[in-house]
Amino acid sequence: MEQISLDERRARIGRRHRLAPSCQAPDPVQAAASMVALHATDPATVHLSVAARVPGSEVALTERALYDDRTLIRMLGMRRTVFVVPTPFAPVVQAACADDIAVKQRKLLVKHLTEAGIGADPDASGKWLRAVEESTATALTLRGSATAQELSADEPRLRSRLAMAPGKTYAAQPYVTSRVLFQLSAEGRIVRGRPLGTWLSGQHQWSPVENWLPEGPGDKPPVEEARISLARAWLGAFGPGTLADLQWWSGWTLGQTRKALAALSAVEVDLDGVVGYVLPGDEAPEVEVEPWVSFLPALDPTPMGWKDRDWYLGEHKSQLFDNTGNVGPTVWCDGRIVGGWGQPETGEVRYKLLEDVGSETVAAIEAEAARWTSWLAGVRVTPRFRAPLEKSLSKP
After folding, report:
1. DSSP notation for 286-324
2. Residues in CB range of 236: below 8 A, 6 or more apart
3. Which end of the chain is more exposed for a tag (fewer CB within 10 A), N or C?
4. Taking Cα atoms as reference points, which of 345, 87, 350 lies closest to residue 213?
């Protein structure tokens, strides 16, 4: 079994994740493709992840790809997470991950509708949901794009209320609107479009999927073929990785993950005594890259690419991740995390190193912090999921 060293794995991050200066991407689409997908749960992450990989990029460049050229699309994907992917790759993600999620979420929503008394039984609730979905989709098609509020005006049943945790101190009666729109999105029928506010806003207009994919949600590969394609893309970007890494990242079952790796004839490699996998022919050492440093945003796809993170994270998890496994802003050096960063109210980028990196690297990190302060130009980004170190650096 070929052995792939820790240094080799870290070198691959610099080149394949477009973080070393000589390996950066020419545009947002290439940046997203190099990572398979960009995390988009926090809207700021998309723009900051692109800016870390595309020299001279601005928010407007990424917005153009997302909303004008529509070469990128925001969609539900792996682990029920929102991602931005190159538009041609969306049908693969839909078939490989989102369709299964949609089935599970529909069952859960029907259960909640029945508990709220909207339907007398699951069958009646299911029929009610289908009717509201079709009416909502029709209204969206007629408008071309619309907000949730506008669609609620067109389809008043979207203002029906659920009964969540009745009798509990945290009981709530939310409108069904967001759940119906989520379901339509999970099934690939509608797409999150432009934000309602700035590029930091988490609220979006909605559009029919045909505005991005002319053939609509039905033009997708068979599920097994899609899983193979997605596993191939992940191995190309994140390999070598373990079976557990791919299963966690994709959200698949163990059996589905094994089947995809077997179909690819993925090659077993030795990762310091642990079995990892690479694509056939990808066992050779990576071409060496120059020394590099990078500031990555919260939920960037690089630190969120593997389940086992010790080899690039070290002992810094408690300071850089929240309690549910979401990474905060990180400082990288040559394929490993060496610190974190944040912004106080004044907007400048502050960082803290968690290990000794030497004076030359410190100087490079200082320059990178200054670059990010200039790029953000006073805009303060507060991550949706906050890690302890980021919180401390964001204090006055």
Report:
1. PPP----EEEE-TT-TTTTS-S--HHHHTT-HHHHB-TT
2. 16, 279, 282
3. C
4. 87
What range does the domain containing 366 cover?
A: 309-393
Task: Specify the DSSP class assigned to residue 266.
Answer: P
Question: Please, is 192 exposed, middle or buried when counting C-beta atoms within 10 Å of its C-beta (0-12, 13-18, 19+)?
Answer: buried
Residue by residue, pLDDT tens for the chain (396 residues) are 899 999 999 999 999 999 999 999 999 999 999 999 999 999 999 999 999 999 999 999 999 999 999 999 999 999 999 999 999 999 999 999 999 999 999 999 999 999 999 999 999 999 999 999 999 999 999 999 999 999 999 999 999 999 887 877 777 889 999 999 999 999 999 999 999 999 999 999 999 999 999 887 778 999 999 999 999 999 999 999 999 999 999 999 999 999 999 999 999 999 999 999 999 999 988 888 999 999 999 999 999 999 999 999 999 999 999 999 999 999 999 999 999 999 999 999 999 999 999 999 999 999 999 999 999 999 999 999 999 999 999 998
In a domain, 152, yes or no: no
Whether residue 354 lies inside any domain: the answer is yes
Is residue 332 within 8 Å of 320, Cβ to Cβ?
A: no
Instruction: Assess if residue 168 is contained within a domain.
Output: no
Residues whose CB is less than 8 angstroms from the CB of residue 293 and which lie 6 or more positions away in sequence, other chains included = 331, 332, 333, 334, 361, 364, 365, 368
Helix (H, G, I), strand (E, B) or coil at 278: strand
pTM of the predicted model over 0.90: yes
Number of structural domains (the chain) is 1
On whether residue 368 sits in a domain, the answer given is yes
Interior CA angle at 283 toward 279 and 286, to 5°? 110
